[in-house]
Amino acid sequence: MARPRTPMLSVSGIRTAALALVDRDGLEGLSMRRLAQELDVQAASLYSHYRTKEDLLADIANEIMAEVDVSGFASGDWRSGLTVWARSYRAALAAHPNLVPVVAAGPGRREAALRRADAVHGGLVAAGWPARHATMIGASTKYLVVGAAMNSFARGFDDDVQVYRDRYPNLSQAHRLSEHAAEIDDDSFELALSAFLDGLDRTFAALGSDLGAARAAEG
């Protein structure tokens, strides 16, 4: 059988190539024409699989976010559920930082994203959080995770000691930060997550006390 002149396309192959392109060149580097060149096909060939670039990006976002674990909420332990969710969420985003603006966008109508949001919200409410607080906790966790995934504090400093010497005496070791960036970023995220959860513990206890007092007053 003769080999086809046009390479065979698959949805998974298109997604893989598009993600590699975004990882390398950023979101602005992705276009259907550019992707077709990477795959050595005509741009029209892509449209039989994806009508728009936005549809393609949504599919890629779903694939990346499939790694996010919300199963911990089923146990009824909201702190454990949040911890597992936040860590896996950050890991999924940090693996593809150029795609964070797409992945971190609201769930819209994406089925997988809505299932995760439902699991998080339902798990928090089932554990005793009021619905309003559950919504705010979900939002706050997202703010923490997305911020951690998009930027590296340590890598934001120059590794030339002369930049800081004399003029910035309190930053005399700043040139060493980039060398230890991964460790600093991981430990900083864990510190922020721990402080966040400890604060929620106190809020949860206070809510329980207020509810108990209200019930006693009614009785």
TrEMBL record:
Keywords: DNA-binding, Repressor, Transcription, Transcription regulation. Residues 8-68 form the HTH tetR-type domain. This is AcrR family transcriptional regulator. InterPro entries: Homeodomain-like_sf, HTH-type_TetR-like_transc_reg, HTH_TetR, Repressor_TetR_C, Tet_transcr_reg_TetR, Tet_transcr_reg_TetR-rel_C_sf. Residues 31-50 bind DNA. The lineage of its organism: Bacteria, Bacillati, Actinomycetota, Actinomycetes, Streptosporangiales. One of its GO terms (biological process) is response to antibiotic. Transmembrane segments: none annotated. GO terms for molecular function: DNA-binding transcription factor activity; transcription cis-regulatory region binding.
